[in-house]
């Protein structure tokens, strides 16, 4: 038998079958039963207006209600109802709080091994960035040092080019000791020495 004669896949057949199932009218009209069941797990004031339904089987469906709990925007209360046949009473299978299309939900759970791998990857990337930054800073500092050395060379050339002939003339014939004082017997002008006049007066 060819694929074209085999019919649609099993999943598609199940979807088509679900679309063909009409909702149980008795269950659709049992919203008060659903509200009463939900009131056993939450305050009745947190159960809002009707918010549709979902058919699960021939006599099984869920009725949805707006959730008015603070901090749960987009969520809705759900009560799943069922009955065995047309003559059976309505039974409550389950009541719960479910996220709607625009609900704020927690992020998808990620295994620890994947989170650890991501953490290590992030740490390695940060370490590489720090090394690159340090190398760039050191290179910039080296460039600044090179520029400073170039300026010092220019300064040394300027000093060597200066004329110190006047300085040599002023101190010609004067000997100084290690402390920088004039040595006795050096040729020093007496007119600049105030002690020389006192010595002459004492001799008179």
Total helices: the number is: 7
Helix content: 40-55%
Report the end-to-end length measured between terminal Cα atoms: 152 Å
- Shape category: rod-shaped
| Element pattern in H and E | HHHHEEEEHHH
- The helix/strand class is alpha+beta
Number of domains: 2
Q: How many β strands by DSSP?
A: 4
Strand order in the sheet with the most strands: 1-2-3-4
Cα-atom Rg, whole angstroms?
A: 51 Å
Strand content: 15-25%
Which ranges are low-confidence, i.e. pLDDT below 50, for 5 or more consecutive residues? 1-5
Summed over residues and divided by their number, the pLDDT gives a mean of: 77
Regarding quaternary structure, what we see is single chain
Main sheet summary: 4 strands, antiparallel
Biased composition (Acidic residues): 187-204
Pfam families: DUF3027
Region (Disordered): 181-204
Protein name: DUF3027 domain-containing protein
Q: What is this entry, summarized?
A:
The chain is 46% helix and 18% strand.
Explain what you see.
This protein is α+β, with helices and mostly antiparallel strands and 204 residues long. 46% of the residues lie in helices and 18% in strands. The protein has two domains: 3-99; 109-171. It is built from seven helices and four strands; from the N terminus they run ααααββββααα. Strand 3 and strand 4 form a beta hairpin. The protein is rod-shaped, with a radius of gyration of 51 Å. The chain starts with a helix and ends with a helix. Mean pLDDT is 77; it is low at 1-5.
